[in-house]
Amino acid sequence: MTRIKCCGMTRIEDALLAAQLGADAIGVVMTAHSKRQVSVAQAKAIVEAMPPFVTTVALFMDDDTGFVQEVIDVVRPSLLQFHGTESDEWCRQFGHPYLKAIAMGEGAAALYQLRDHPHAAGLLLDGHGLGEAGGSGKVFDWSLMPHDVKQPLILAGGLTAANVAAAIRIAQPWAVDVASGVESAPGIKDPHKLRDFIAAVRSTANP
Ligand SMILES: O=C(O)c1ccccc1NCC(=O)[C@H](O)[C@H](O)COP(=O)(O)O
Is pTM beyond 0.90 here? Predict the structure, then answer.
């Protein structure tokens, strides 16, 4: 079964709908590099509104140590997700489980980064280029998804209800992650697109 993370939540009602429709995780983007940035107070309200068994993820991109620690202390997310040039050692300093995003914009040449984060709980392969923000809607070549990496791999980048079944069949990821593909505007989720996306994932077999 492929897990589903819906990212870039800015409204409690969108995050609750995603959870009700069967999303396994929701993400709140904390970094100022994003059109979907939420305040610490907004993120806390979204995280606290989530029902049991929904994983909450707080996203950063080359942010200050103090800010990451403040989010851990106040928002209390289940997981962190780092989207910038953060090293394995830097990500580990918080003693909190995290995902590391791998920028796949350069294609096969980007795969070297997979070896650099042995302590990440999972690796999120995203379609954007190195140094670019996520939530870009950019797709990468799904056939590049490796099958010899120990950590769970999360597929992201330009996924929609129309292409996610093909993406799962080709990449066979542990989970898929979507932001812009289920939105009507940055940070505003479209209920129909959310429903169609989650239904498309659930109806696709993934061994
Ligand atoms: O979503 C953002 O605005 C964002 C900004 C900076 C760093 C990461 C960001 N999002 C990361 C995500 O997890 C997205 O869900 C992922 O990049 C997929 O986005 P999309 O291609 O729009 O589905």
Answer: yes
